[in-house]
Amino acid sequence: MAEAKNHNEAGEVAPSTVDKQAPSVAEENAPSTNSPEATDLPTANAPDPEAANPETNPNAAKPAAPPKREKPAAAAKDAVGEKPAAGEKPAAKAAKKEKAPAVEDKPFVEFIQQDYLPALQKAIAQQGVQNLEVSFAKQKVSIKGFESAEECWQVIGSWSENGLRQFNLYFPEEDIQGKKGFSCNEGKKPSTLESFLIDERKITLDLLVFGLVQRLNGQKWLGRN
């Protein structure tokens, strides 16, 4: 009769007490597949994430990132000379300085006395006339056929050159842009009243001086003739 063999001789290994306990322990502590649950299984000796030093513990909680700073407004960029971003309009340019009013915009009498008479006397003197006398007065027109009871502003110039030479420049509308007339004489009655600078759209100081010098030059009254 054959002898009975133990499990070691038969090539079998008897289960240990750990193996016997493993299924029951795993079953008791295994998480449910339906809902998460905490277990009492021992865990690694990991430090508290909130208390651990993040430089030595990779599990430590990282500090919250600082909030992002917003970009400066377009006005701030213009202040430091930066170009505005796409879609932003550049700041309005500084208002240009207003131009000084032209001398022609002065009141009529003020313009003639302060600007025209000195400029005219200087221009005629440059043509060789050294004893010119100019004045500005409101008086009647003495030309035959143009007599009027009303007075008219006139620029009157005269000098001696083998007799008396005199010219009158008339401003019946008291406006350099309005109608103007001219007459001249050499110690006799004034010549016929003629229009003066009627084709010019805008009268300036220089044009008013140049026009009269040209008219006197056409009369051959200036020193170069």
TrEMBL record:
It comes from the Bacteria. It comes from Komarekiella delphini-convector SJRDD-AB1. This is DUF2996 domain-containing protein. Residues 1-100 are annotated as: Disordered. InterPro entries: DUF2996. It holds the Pfam family DUF2996. Residues 1-10 have a biased composition (Basic and acidic residues). Residues 42-63, 73-93 have a biased composition (Low complexity). PANTHER family: DUF2996 FAMILY PROTEIN.
